[in-house]
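Need residues for this backbone.
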């Protein structure tokens, strides 16, 4: 009875770890995308901003493998459409029971890690907003 109970706990533990990591990744990416629309900071500073938020993920391989500098962060600056995008990806080492299933399904990389990836886009200027900055200033003169 005890081995069955421990196996069930082990099976339930990994999804909880993955959900927590993914939630932190999505939050960090969303905060960075919002910041990108209001700042002229360099990309390296924005990536460091994202890494500081990702520090909430424990440095344990079932949450994130590779340490704090192994996050892959890609930034897309707001262009003419006013859309900023941030992509954050990292790798997780699955627990042995789940790792066997992941390898059988082909969902792991060469070393047996599973990749987690989050893409967030933020539109700084809503479609319903008309005019530009100069026309807004004229309204207040």
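Answer:
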């Amino acid at each position: 009875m005890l081995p069955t109970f421990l196996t069930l706990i082990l099976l339930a533990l990994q999804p909880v770890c993955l959900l927590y990591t993914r939630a932190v990744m999505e939050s960090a990416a969303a905060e960075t995308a919002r910041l990108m629309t209001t700042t002229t900071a360099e990309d390296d500073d924005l990536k460091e901003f994202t890494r500081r938020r990702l520090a909430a993920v424990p440095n344990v391989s079932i949450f994130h493998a590779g340490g704090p500098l192994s996050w892959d962060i890609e930034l897309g600056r707001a262009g003419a459409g006013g859309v900023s995008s941030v992509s954050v990806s990292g790798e997780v080492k699955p627990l042995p029971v789940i790792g066997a299933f992941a390898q059988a399904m082909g969902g792991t990389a060469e070393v047996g890690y599973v990749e987690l990836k989050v893409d967030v886009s933020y539109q700084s200027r809503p479609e319903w907003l008309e005019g530009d900055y100069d026309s807004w200033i004229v309204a207040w003169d």
